[in-house]
Fold this sequence. Notes:
alpha+beta, 49% helix, 11% strand, EC 2.7.7.19, ATP binding
Amino acid sequence: MTKQESITVIPRADHPISRDDISDNALKVLYRLNKNGYEAYLVGGGVRDLLLGQKPKDFDITTNATPEQIRKLFRNCRLVGRRFRLAHIMFGPEIIEVATFRGHHDQEVDDKNLSSQAQNGMLLRDNIFGSIEEDAIRRDFTVNSLYYNIDDFSVRDYVNGLQDLKDGVIRLIGDPETRYREDPVRMIRAVRFACKLNMRIEPKTAEPIHRLAPLLGEIPSARLFEESLKLLQAGYGYATYKMLNQYHLFEQLFPVIASRFTENGDSPMEKIIEQVLKNTDFRLKNDKRVNPAFLFAAMLWYPVTEHAEKLAQEGGLAYYDAFALAMNDVLDEQCRSIAIPKRITTTMRDIWMLQLRLPRRQGRRANKLMEHPKFRAAFDLLELRANVEHRNELQELALWWSDFQQSNAQKQREMISELGSAPTRRRQRPHRSSQSGNRKPNKS
């Protein structure tokens, strides 16, 4: 290892990164850039994970070639992003992201198409290009600012990231408050990396988070949806949930839920959130699929039922109609913070509505319910509810459905017969009140 002024260079013999562990497509991009006279480095989480002996999820590249120069070299290149201009090199399902070295952001830059910053300090556009040294200090955390040089296979460190990686420290580069104001998402990224890598957030990096957490409200809700999946569906969701609460970030992402937290943290809602996150972590560790619709449906179930009961009592609505309105209201409120796509909210609605149908099993209803494409997810939510509520009738219902699914046709007929005949269903007509007005359920 050699140290030159503010740079530490680790030769190939002194680090564990092998080209065998790097994507073939990433190597193709690195070699072509290098062959055409450009500097080319693997950078960020890919280098960090390789140094830790982990398998990277993706590989990012940085270079001194401009986006237009990159596009000329690769026919399969697409330029994306306005805030940060990037090149995506497409290899079927694999995308190699290539960024040009970022330069210092100057408040006095004349060309606002290159650089733009809001009054609150948020960086709206940053397309000022520079050197690798400038690029290193423009990155967020020291452990993400490590460069693998394809030219000599060395690792370059400009910000003491190697030592922080060794010490297990998540540290922002530069002044934490300034960097958080530039991009408030860095606050939740600090939590995500700390939980993912089992590291601690350095005190100066942690100090402003609680105070600046409301800045997340200025981030587009669609971007926060993508970030929420990285937080909760990456194999360490439970630990992330606890740390998000510790830094008062969870309430910015899920205000509908956080407003219902109890002092002791032992409500059914809080218990089901912890359980569904633990279950999600377990499934991911065992290479099983997870469904964001189920996760969000479980997390928001109790806010929906609580609101439905309030609408039914105060608005004189039949519970079924109140429940439909409650789904709309809760989803509308939640989507102001995190824009859950309609394809997911549609599934969430199915899972929720099936909770009202699962108790009605007489006649052919049970078999019809099992044919519903979202039945299994609805049953899983029923089991979670039974586990956290400890109500006899709910536990008996979950057990009945568990046995029913495992029984043959004859046994299923016997189980249905034992339930007796189906009760006559009378649809209650909603009463008008000043609070309910003319509200009608909709699927918006």
